[in-house]
Amino acid sequence: MMMIMTSNEFRDGLAGVPAAKSRVSHVDGEKGILEYRGIRIEELAEKSSFIETAYLLIWGKLPTQEELEDFETEIRYHRRIKYHIRDMMKCFPGTGHPMDALQTSAAALGLFYSRRALDNPNYIRAAVVRLLAKIPTMVAAFHMIRKGNDPIQPNDDLNYAANFLYMLTERRPDPLAAQIFDVCLTLHAEHTMNASTFSARVTASTLTDPYAVIASAVGTLAGPLHGGANEEVLNMLEEIGSVENVRPYVERCLANKQKIMGFGHRVYKVKDPRATILQDLAEQLFAKMGHDEYYDVAVELENVVEEYIGREKGIYPNVDFYSGLLYRKLGIPADLFTPIFAIARVAGWLAHWKEQLTVNKIYRPTQIYVGDHNLAYIPMAERVVDRDPGTVSA
Length: 394
Ligand code: CMC
Prior knowledge:
394 residues, mainly alpha, Citrate Synthase, domain 1, CATH 1.10.230.10, 2 domains, three-stranded antiparallel β-sheet, globular, binds carboxymethyl coenzyme *A
């Protein structure tokens, strides 16, 4: 139900405040429905591919066979990254988080393709293709470089999802694994006005270049309350360790008012439909590649959370809950889970970038000032020492 606001009403986290009119996607949080451009996520997961879904999101319609082939060919052609970007990554600390490396690299693309022409469809198309094509290559390249290896060149024989898995290992992935990974990308491609999409739209509204738009969205996605939760889920399952430990863990979290990672959502008050699909995919993958003991811990956690707070507060698994287990079975290291979320979400961010350009008015909200007025300037000698200013080591 849409809440009507008075003009000066303030809501923490802008909860329930519409920030844009959009045709890109729709969520019904009470019924657990997600649609991209009007098509249910379950149908896209079953029948579409990530690239076709990206086309749907960005251009607003399903492509014809010819349009899809052209789009795939362009993306395949642009997968390689310039050696400058590779060399720049070699200067990054290997201990740095891959999301930070990705944010920096995405922004750096703007240095190479800086001719901004937002009213030129060819410029828009080239930016869309380059970003979709190069972001996976940059994620894989940083992963190889931090291990002391040269990046693996993209393999033109492989589709988008399979090529990414290949660039992490230099081995052709199992076809089922690649197909499941492609569905994971489709599931993460878009999700209405979340924090990173809002960030993308705010940045887009200044008419800056699309690489800056994606870089700001990547930085926003990185936080543990947003895309970073999938990595935290795996750490949490490992910390819990066994099915018997689940109940005491949940009790401890609730007693300490600590959030349980991978649960809860601003919009969904039922189980996230993507979590249901991901759980099913995880079971398919485990059936082929071997069971994961932490899956049993996860299922028990879902049951116990539902029993304690689920029904009362509408806290159920979100998209991040089962994705980590699935990626781990694919052999992907935990700190690449959020960059993979970003690889997929680039499609949604670009759709919102394009939409923002068509209706643009720069975002400039207001604030409610709650500070002081008319204070005197205190002379240095009379100032009081701050008890907790923090320290910085040399
Ligand atoms: N574990 C325990 N209690 C929770 C959780 C949780 N994961 N999520 C919400 N609650 C409780 C919360 O304590 C509060 O209780 P009370 O009303 O008694 O104070 C109530 O539910 C409402 O929570 P909220 O934090 O006010 O809700 P929000 O809409 O501001 O936050 C959220 C949504 C996703 C940030 C939050 O549920 C959370 O921090 N979850 C854990 C992190 C996570 O899994 N994030 C991924 C989100 S989905 C994908 C994405 O956006 O990237």
